[in-house]
Amino acid sequence: MELPKKYNPKEVESKWEKFWIERNLYQAGKDKDKKTFVIMMPPPNVTGMLHMGHVLNNTLQDMYARYKRMKGYDVLWLPGIDHAGIATQNVVEKELKKEGKSRFDLGREKFVERVYKWKEKYEDIIISQLRRLGCSCDWTRYRFTMDEKLSKAVLTAFVKLYEKGSIYKGKYIVNWCPRCETTLSDEEVEREEIEGKLYYIKYKIENEDEFITVATTRPETMLGDTAVAYHPSDQRYKKFKGKYAILPFIGRKLPIIEDEAVDPDFGTGAVKITPSHDPADFEIAKKHSLEFVTIMDTKGIINENGGEFKGLDRFEAREIIVKKLKEMGQLDKIEDYKINIGKCYRCDTIIEPYLSEQWFLKMKEMAKKAYEAGEKGEVKFHPS
C-alpha cells in the first residue's frame, strides 16, 4: 500500500488513524521484522451490566493478547461497546412502563435523550467491569459503535459497495415484530409449539356451483390471497386447472395453479397462496408471477386492502372472519392443530411474516474469495 510522501504523525486526526498508518508502514516493509496482532473486542451491548459470558470471552481475548505480546508481536486489542439499537430501546421502554409512560408520551427527541442517559450509565459500568477484570486493551482507542467517525466509516463502505453494484434493494419476506416495529433475524426469533387451529375454508369456483377447500392456520391472511395451488400429481384438483376461485369478502379472482412446493398431505392438499405474508408463498408467487397484496400495516392492523376488516388488529380480524365464514356457509370445519409459532425474543410478541423492502449484499464473489483463502491456508480456523 502506498503512503503519502509527506507523512507527518502530528497532522493525523486521531490515534486510531495513526495506528493504521503505522500498520501500513509495517506492511510496506519499513519494519519487516515487526509482526502485528489485532483483536477486535466483540463489543458488549449497552443494554446492561456484563455477565459471566462476557467474563469468559474477554478473559480468553486477554490471554491471547498477553501471549502474543510475550512472543514479540505488536498487539492491539481494540475495546468498545455496542449501541444494540432495538434491544436498548426495549429495556428503556420497560423502565418507562414502570413509570406508567411509553416512548410516545415522551416524543422522539426526549426518548432519544432518555436512551442516551441509559447508555452513559451502563457504559461507565461496563468499562469499569472490564478494567477490574484486568483487560489489557488499548483504552486510548476505545470506541462506541455510534461514534461519529465509525458511523461515517459505515456510510462510506455502504456507498462504495453500492457504487460497485454489490448492494441492491428488493422485496423480501422478513420476520416482523408489530410491537417493536422492526425486522428480526432468524436467530432473534424464538420458536414455540402451541395448540392452535386448522381452519378449512371453501372458495367458490368462478361461474360454477363447486368449491375448492383450503386449509390454513391463519384465516385473517386470506384477505391477501392471490392464488390457490395444489401439487401437480394431485389428481383431485386437475379439473380446476386454469380456472379461478373467488376470494370471500374481497371478490378477487384467484388463479388455480400447480406447484411442486405444495404438500398434498397437508389439510385438503389445496392451499391458499398469500405472497406478502408467507415465505413459501412468496417463492411460489415469484415463480408464477402472482400479485402481491399486503393486508396489514407495520403494527399488525388490517389496512385498506382488507376491505370491511380495515382497522382491526390481526387477531381480532381472525375471530370476526371465522364467525362470518360460518354464517356464509364457507367454513367447512375447524380442527385442533399444533402450530410452531415465532416470537420476538425482546417482547414475546408473535412474529408476522411480512413483505418488506430490504437491502441485500451480493455474496457470490465474496464467498468465492473467502473460500479460496481458506483452501490456500491464508485464513486459519481454530479449532481446525
Can you offer a commentary on this structure?
It is built from nine helices and 14 strands. With 384 residues, it is of the alpha+beta class. The chain folds into two domains: 35-164, Rossmann fold; 186-359, Valyl/Leucyl/Isoleucyl-tRNA synthetase, editing domain (Isoleucyl-tRNA Synthetase, domain 2). The strands form four sheets. Strands 7, 8, 9, 10, 11, 12 and 13 form a seven-stranded mixed sheet that branches. The radius of gyration is 28 Å and the shape is elongated.
What would a concise description of this structure say?
By secondary structure, the protein is of the alpha+beta class. Helix content is 34%, strand content 24%.
